[in-house]
Structures are given as C-alpha cells and as structure tokens.
Write a structure and sequence with these properties.
11 helices, mainly alpha, globular, 57% helix, single chain, 190 residues, 2 strands, hpI Integrase, Chain A
C-alpha cells in the first residue's frame, strides 16, 4: 500500500454509476488484469495482499464445480475463509485463459504477481478517468462491505466475513455511520 493512501480518507464507492464508471475506466485505460482484480475485490472483500496471492490454477480448478468457491488463509488474520465467486466466475475464468503465469495478476517483471503499489497506481489511474475520489487498494474491500450491508442489512454476517471484532467497527469501516450522520445533518435545520 502506498504511503499516500494513508493520507487520504479511502472510502467505499457508494454510487452505482461511479462503480460502473470505475469498471469502464479499468477495462479501457488499465486493461483486463486490473479490471478483474477490481471485480474480484469488490465481490469478495479480500484484502489486496490476499488478492495478489491468488493463483490461476485456483480459478481454473473451479470449472467443474457447481459452486465456484475456494478456501484461503488470510494473510493478515491467518484465519481461513471461503471465497465465493459464483456470480463473476465466467468472466474471471475467461480472463484466466489469457494469463500465461501461475499468478492471477502477473507482473511484467518476472514470474510474480504485481505489487501492491502497482495495484494502487492502476486504481488511481482508473479513478482519475472515472472522476472517483478517495480511492485506494482498500476501496475494493470497503465497497464490498458497503454494498453487502446495503443489500442485506446483515451487519453480523458482514462482521464475520470481514473478520471484525464488533458490529460498530464494521459499520465505521464501511462508512455507514458517517453516511447516516451526514445525511441527517445535511437536512437538519432549526
């Protein structure tokens, strides 16, 4: 993660049009690799380090399974987590067919994955084209959390998925408390 990312308040993408604009900018200006990284990130809530450790064979190995899910051990928490990509599998699988590397997100500099810094740069590049502010590598995880909560209102399940210790941490992390306060204060008038 870039030091600059800590200087900005990284936020989830709360507007569906901005989310679509970000996907478009990644496809158009950064390429399929960076688009697929973003797609998996916003659909799983994985941290950038765990995303960058994904291997092509993991995705290909799901082809014959009905449920497109795999187990990972998270780098930060060391906890095991089942990752379900059923909803985006076909698009991700199609991408794997063009990858000539063990790594799902290969670097052009040898047989390794791209760096966190490179992922950050590509997200920033797309965000500039899409006019989306406060974007960093954690934006993908926060965006997943935000939309999961908005669609399900199940903070307990989201807390479990994100491995947070309290519901309050989860709500603060995805910006729900701030969003609700801002909305009330925007319309508050005596």
């Amino acid at each position: 993660m870039s030091k600059n990312e800590y200087l900005i308040d990284v936020q989830p993408i709360r507007d569906m049009q901005q989310l679509e604009d970000m996907k478009w900018a990644l496809r158009r200006h950064c390429g399929k690799r960076d688009y697929i990284l973003f797609l998996i990130g916003i659909n799983t809530g994985l941290r950038i380090g765990d995303l960058l450790n994904l291997e092509t064979k993991t995705i290909i190995g799901l082809k014959k399974k009905k449920r497109k899910e795999f187990l990972i051990r998270e780098g930060k928490t060391k906890k095991e987590r089942m990752i379900n990509i059923t909803g985006i599998y076909e698009e991700v699988y199609e991408y794997t067919q063009s990858v000539n590397s063990n790594w799902l997100f290969p670097s052009r500099k040898g047989d390794k994955s791209i760096s966190t810094i490179q992922a950050y740069r590509q997200l920033q590049k797309a965000a500039n084209f899409a006019s989306v502010e406060a974007v960093g590598t954690h934006t993908m995880r926060k965006t997943f959390g935000y939309w999961f909560y908005k669609q399900t209102k199940d903070v307990a399940m989201l807390q479990d998925i994100l491995n947070h210790s309290t519901p309050q941490i989860t709500l603060r992390y995805i910006g729900i408390n701030k969003e609700e306060k801002d909305h009330v204060l925007d319309t508050f008038c005596l």
